[in-house]
Write the structure tokens for this entry.
Amino acid sequence: MNQASPALDLVDETFIVVPPSTVAAAFADPRSWTRYWPDLVLEVYTDRGEQGLRWTVRGALVGTMEVWTEPVLDGTLLHYFLRATPAGPDGTPKELAPRELRREFDRRARAAKAIALGLKEILEDGREPGVPPQVG
């Protein structure tokens, strides 16, 4: 396995009609991280404030992860990046068979979208399409 390339390279984007600071606040508390990613140990290596966070990842995966909040129109485009490799019990990268790797990628992609859509539902708080976001 090539150590320079992560086995999983996942990108997700979700538009949420609230300001970037509101979306960033959902990730600011480290206690939320264990709720969103219970099998990962995260350590911030770049705190970009309202623009999001970058973490190193340990636990079930070894690599990096990022949430980036980009102001777009009347809301925020939430970008999610995961670049990591599954880890063995000793915390070192382990190689998975192609089928297992695809399963892990799909599981992580569905989990990322579930987090984003859950935040969208909570943060938009019933906002109807075409109605400006609530401020305050």
